[in-house]
Amino acid sequence: MEHRLTALETRLDATLPMLATKGDVSEAKSTIVMWAAGIVFSAAAIIIAVMLFALNRVQNPPFAQPQLQPIVIQLPPTTQAPNPTPATPQTTEPPKK
């Protein structure tokens, strides 16, 4: 019986340093909670961004281009106004009777 007890104590002495302590478990738990909260926050931010992008695309389609204003070119005024009626040639013949 003494031999079995010694073997059991030896096995426990080899195993006990590898077991997690209360501090180790607490640290692991807080790390897991921190990671889970970060993942949930990131997923929510991505979902909100995708939804806003989709809603903006539906409300303002990219293919609807605004009407452009026409380009107006104004020429400078001329110094001499052109004669709108052509000059009629004068004849020297007497009128026919």
Walk me through what this model shows.
The protein has 2 helices and no strands. With 97 residues, it is mostly helical. The longest helix is centred in the middle third of the chain and has 38 residues, at 22-59. The model has no long low-confidence stretch (mean pLDDT 84). It has a domain at 21-61. The relative contact order is 0.04.
Q: What layout of secondary structure does this protein have?
A:
Elements: H1 2-15, H2 22-59
Gist of the model:
This protein has 97 residues and is mainly alpha-helical. It contains two helices and no strands. It has helices spanning 2-15, 22-59.
Percent in strands:
under 5%
Question: How many helix segments?
Answer: 2
Rg estimate, integer Å: 49 Å
Share of helix, binned: 40-55%
- Globular, elongated, flat, extended or rod-shaped: what is the shape? rod-shaped
Distance between the termini: 166 Å
Unreliable residue stretches: none
H-E string: HH
What is the typical, i.e. mean, pLDDT?
84
- Biggest beta sheet summary: none
From the helix content, strand content and strand pairing, which structural class follows?
Answer: mainly alpha
Counted beta strands: 0
